[in-house]
Amino acid sequence: MALEQALIAVLGAAESKGLNVKDLLGHASALVLGHSPYRIVDDPYVDMALKAIIDAHAKALTLKP
After folding, report:
1. Residue 45: which domain range?
2. For the segment 36-47, what is each residue's pLDDT rounded down to a tens digit?
3. How many domains does the chain have?
């Protein structure tokens, strides 16, 4: 739960700073899918990480003022 809250807060901060959140999400997903230095898990956690990104973004959108 704490990690979900942290990710939602990061997405909210990016949105409130005027950053391109969709681009950020796409890049983050690519880092998880690729073998980047920021990927610290293997299957099945890759799919779970991608789902967490999508779910956190959906939740952040519902909280947007």
Report:
1. 2-63
2. 999 999 999 999
3. 1
